[in-house]
Amino acid sequence: MAIPTTGDMTPNPRAESSYLLKPNLSTNYPVVDRGEGPYLFDTAGRRYFDGSSGAMTANLGHGLKEIADQMAAQASTVAFTFRNQFSNVAAEELARKLCQLAPGDLDRAFFVNSGSEASEYAIRMSIHYWKERGQPNRTKILGRLTSYHGMTMGALSISGHAGRRPDYGPLLHDFASVPPAYCYRCPFGLEPDGCATECADAWETAIAAHGADNVAAVIAEPIVGAAGGVLVPPPGYFRRLREICDRHDILLIADEVITGIGRTGTWFASATEGIVPDLLLLAKGMSAGYTPMAAVLVGQRIVDVIAQGSGSVPFGHTFSANPLSASICASVIDYIEHNDVLDNVNARGAELRDGLAALSQRHACMVDVRGRGLLWGFELVRDRASRRLFDAALNAAGELVAACLDHGLVVYPAGIAPLNNAIIVAPPLIVTTEQVGELLAKLGAALRDFEAGIAAP
Ligand code: PMP
Q1: Residue 3: what pLDDT?
Q2: In this structure, are 177 and 129 located in the same domain?
Q3: What is any Pfam family matched here (predicted)?
Q4: With a 6 A CB cut-off, is 228 part of the ligand 1 pocket?
Q5: Is the same domain home to 347 and 326?
């Protein structure tokens, strides 16, 4: 940018607008200047109820003093050490906490900076593991059609959501081919009470199609978030997937970027079926949005193979395991433990579920309320009986999000491509009963506006 010299009175063309490049060039984003609990405030003085915790991330709400104090204390102690030169007390402590909370032999943690990097690391780690075991052909990582694992090229290759996977041509592999566990729109045309988890068996079909000897790992979210609008698999799905992986000696990667660290009422959603993945990804809620940080928890049996082989795991990034971020994440876990946050998730989650179900009774367009803990989704349909979607041109999910915003409520548009057909409601895990009521009242008002605006068939 040319800096105006003295006497140059040409007005800077951007002086009144923004230099920040934002995802949608034609949208005027509100500019936030502060947050408190589940609320955000913009520079125009408007208050927003953060009903989706941003992108299911700000799990402890905004402006938490305990976290800010820990941040300041760590920053003035030591903020950065480089992973190839030192370990550090904060990262050691965070790894210990996570591995002690995690199931089975997930006894090692590698730190990166985003969910996408966690996916990339898991891809590299899986391929590395098979090389160490003398099977270098095992390089494929299979994923599901309705899934999202990140925006970097490897993570996109294992993500199946067409709308999130623009055509980057030969840079992407076609690894996401398994039909989703999507009960409301079952890809096998079944209803939950007449199904034998065909969607889980579909993994075996895909493994056979790619050749088990070429497959390093499979990746799945215990509950699909943004790519499906909260898809809860049928009971037994992950146990079946674990069996299939064991039979073919394929690693199972659980992407708990959204579900991990309490969002669904347990520390890890994969624990719901008692399975132990070989690698487990964490991001978003691990830092509750207070710093960019992510983790890959790695099974000890993988580390043992590498220890007996080359002895070195794939690299990380410059900021991997930096003490400042690690201490913030450790304080997030402490906060959850010391304030009975998981109990709150289960109690407030039941209130939210009941309230959403009641709204669905009143609003014919709102169907299939689904979720667990404080992660809920529902779909928008033109016709309940046939489950027919609104015409894409109406941008129904976008319209409802806008109507919510008019009432000061932020919710998250999600669902199947090409256009979102679902809404995610996932407030911070510290919401009170009164705040759940406030969220539901705002959503109810927005649904009334939405129906009035979009009602004509
Ligand atoms: N995995 C899942 C399940 C996600 O929802 C996301 C982000 N929405 C990612 C991975 C990628 O995380 P990030 O945006 O931090 O790179």
Answers
A1: 42
A2: yes
A3: Aminotran_3
A4: no
A5: no
With a cut of 70, say whether residue 57 has pLDDT above it.
Answer: yes
**pLDDT tens figures, 156-167:** 999 988 877 777
Q: What pLDDT is recorded for position 15?
A: 46
End-to-end CA distance of the chain: 51
Residue 23 exposed, middle or buried by CB count within 10 Å (0-12, 13-18, 19+): exposed
Q: Which atom of ligand 1 is least distant from the CA of 150?
A: 11
Which tens digits make up the pLDDT trace of 200-211? 999 999 999 999
- Co-location of 202 and 293 in the same domain: yes
> What's the CATH number where 306 sits?
3.40.640.10
Residues 346, 254 share a domain: no
State pTM to two decimals: 0.95
In a domain, 25, yes or no: no
54 in contact with ligand 1, CB cutoff 6 A? no
pLDDT value for 316 = 87
Residue 136 above 50 pLDDT? yes
